[in-house]
Amino acid sequence: MADVSSKKIVIAYLGPQSSYTHQATVDSFEESKYILRDELSIRDVFDAVQSSTATFGVVPFENSSNGSVLYTLDLLIDREEALPEIHICGEAYMDVQHCLLGYVSKSFSSENRDLQSSMSSGSATPTSTKPFPQEPRSKPLTDLRHIKRIYSHPQAFGQCEAFLSTYLKGVERHEVSSTSKAATIVAEDKEERGTEAAISSRLAADVHHLAVLAKGVQDVEDNTTRFLIIQKGSVNHKNQSLLPGKFQILNDLRPKRKALIAFSINHETQGALANALLVFKKHALNLTSINSRPSRIRPWHYIFLVEVEGEKEFEDPDLLHLALKELDTVTEGNKWLGCWVDRFGM
Ligand SMILES: O=C(O)C(=O)Cc1ccccc1
């Protein structure tokens, strides 16, 4: 449990307010006990934690239908060594139902509500690369022909492909730092008023006084995003006691733990990647995902990020230490990025 002094504890999150990350932060940290502070970018959240202007940070990490958030992976890898003390100390899952937000077309009246059916056949156009495109799950609630530009976070665009390619095919897309930033831009851009739209949350529609032009526009019904909580220093750091009880790894009775480790290998050594992965097997650390990012030192050379699950292995620092020592012998370099309580399904 966070104590009374935790009133001063600052949690930095990817904002502005009403982003999905904000909602995950509110679900994780009671607003009466913590100061929740919005940041403009994922980088700003990491910087705030590294510079100790915030004790914890919350960032999007992975989506069940669209995969990893590359910005977050790159910041965790920290090629420039500007964020050396950042460690993951928790995770939170959130169901994400996207909406298309904007303004109802002035020409859309009760007489022409049937327009929607003529706007589109309601099915995505087959192409040679995608002969059987996915059908959109929902229909627009209003005419969308006035929309000339759509704003959102790249992750959200990736999660709404079927709807966008069916009902807003060819409309200019602008990637911005978050879904709530997208809603802010649409709400503020008076010049373009009416012709811009954002993929954002239902909450953002209320906060920014925008109309919901379509609901549930993501490709799959079960669309979950995983967020990471980051701190400065590793798991034994005093900060742990400042986390809400459900994230405290040392107190939590649930057996399952997760960890993330980054490593690089010598690409010229045959079997180098397989040898690195074998270390996890040998130490009973179940590999659950592997991501790779370009090293940016040599083209076609990569840094790998593996996520592992375990139980008793995480309670015995000697066992972990042994595994990491062995990893040293088969990798060019590796970095322990933290371990945390598995909160899937909680
Ligand atoms: O938090 C947000 O609003 C973001 O823009 C990141 C994001 C994007 C899509 C799904 C979940 C989080």
UniProtKB/TrEMBL annotation:
User: Which reaction(s) are listed as its catalytic activity?
Assistant: prephenate + H(+) = 3-phenylpyruvate + CO2 + H2O
Its Gene Ontology biological processes? L-phenylalanine biosynthetic process
Q: Which residues form the Prephenate dehydratase domain?
A: 10-232
The EC code for this enzyme is: 4.2.1.51
Do you know which InterPro entries this protein is assigned to? ACT-like_dom_sf (IPR045865), ACT_dom (IPR002912), Chor_mutase/pphenate_deHydtase (IPR008242), Preph_deHydtase (IPR001086)
Region annotated Disordered, chain positions = 114-139
Q: Please give the GO cellular component terms listed in this UniProt entry.
A: cytoplasm
**What one GO molecular function would you report for this record?**
prephenate dehydratase activity
User: Which stretches make up the ACT domain?
Assistant: 261-346
Keyword set, alphabetical order: Amino-acid biosynthesis, Aromatic amino acid biosynthesis, Lyase, Phenylalanine biosynthesis
Annotated pathway: Amino-acid biosynthesis; L-phenylalanine biosynthesis; phenylpyruvate from prephenate: step 1/1
Where are its TM segments located?
A: none
The UniProt regions of compositional bias labelled Low complexity, in chain numbering, are 117-129
Domain of life, per the record?
Answer: Eukaryota
Q: Does the keyword Lyase apply?
A: yes
Name of the featured protein: prephenate dehydratase
Source organism (scientific name):
Lepraria neglecta
Lineage, top ranks: Eukaryota, Fungi, Dikarya, Ascomycota, Pezizomycotina
